[in-house]
Every structure is written in C-alpha cells, then in structure tokens.
Automatic annotation (TrEMBL):
Name this protein carries in UniProt: DUF4167 domain-containing protein
Start and end residues of each DUF4167 domain: 22-80
InterPro entries with a match to the protein in the record: DUF4167
Annotated region (Disordered), positions in chain: 1-46
Pfam families listed in its UniProt record: DUF4167
Organism in which the protein naturally occurs: Azospirillum argentinense
Length: 84
C-alpha cells in the first residue's frame, strides 16, 4: 500500500490556526509581521506613518505603502468617516 502510515493518524499534519500559526508567521518573516499598536486613533495614525517612513528608508516600498494604507484607515477612524 503506497500510503501506509505506520504511526497511525498521529503522523498527519493538521492545519494550524490561532496563536501558534501567528507565532510562526512572526518568527518566519519579521519584516512583514505587524505587531499590535496601542493607543487612540490619532496615535495609531502617527505610529503607522512612522512605520511607513522607516520602511521607505530601508528600501521596502511595498511595506511603506501598506503602512500608509493603515495610517489612512486610522485617520478616517479618528475623524469619524470610516467609509471605504
């Protein structure tokens, strides 16, 4: 039998969801992992803009644009107009 598994079902890999999967993602590619920001909407807006500047300085244009989009979201939240 080509798919004989001598260890039984224990050898099968199950998809990982939740905190374990998040930890793997953070460990695997720290440049792309966004940590949770705390503070008011205005503070989050400023923090995302600062991250965009840092990403731009390091030469990562994609990350900089992603951070700018997050900053724009928090700007809209802070001003009470969060329509897309």
């Amino acid at each position: 039998m080509p798919f004989d598994n001598p260890t039984g079902d224990r050898g099968r890999r199950q998809p990982r969801f939740g905190k374990a999967a998040q930890r793997q993602a953070v460990q695997g590619d720290p440049a792309r992992a966004h940590q949770k920001l705390n503070g008011s909407a205005q503070q989050k807006h400023g923090q995302w803009l600062a991250r965009a500047v840092d990403a731009e300085r390091s030469g990562d244009a994609v990350e900089a644009e992603t951070c700018r989009q997050h900053a724009e979201h928090w700007f809209r939240v802070a001003n009470g107009r969060n329509e897309p």
